[in-house]
Amino acid sequence: SHAGQQVAPEALAAHAAWVKGSKEITGLMLMTMESDIQRNLENLGAYEMLQELKTLFAQQAKQELLQTMRELHSCKQEEG
To answer: What is the DSSP code (8-state) at residue 42?
Structure first.
């Protein structure tokens, strides 16, 4: 945009509504989390929070899969 150009009131209203909605979503997301996760993410916006949660739970799922495979392997050794 050029210097001195006015921003349309509709654009300002849409932006304000988006910011308000984003804050509400962030608040709801935080309310549903365990407190230790909440403390680590409370300063992020909704999008960044979602990215962090995806990373966190992908790592957790990977660890659980490895543990299950180890247990399965040890069961097979006991049988054999």
So the answer is: T
Looking up tokens 């299950």 gives 68
CA 76 to centroid of chain Cα atoms = 38
Tell me the C-alpha distance between 70 and 77, whole Å.
Answer: 11
Distance, in Å, from the CA atom of 26 to the CA atom of 42, rounded to the nearest integer, reads 8
Residue 49 identity: M
Domain ranges of the chain: 9-79
- The tens digit of pLDDT for each residue in 54-75 reads 999 999 999 999 999 999 999 9
Q: How far is CA 52 from the centre of its chain?
A: 5
Q: Is the pLDDT assigned to residue 41 strictly greater than 80?
A: yes
pLDDT value at position 3? 65
Distance CA 10, CA 61 (A): 44
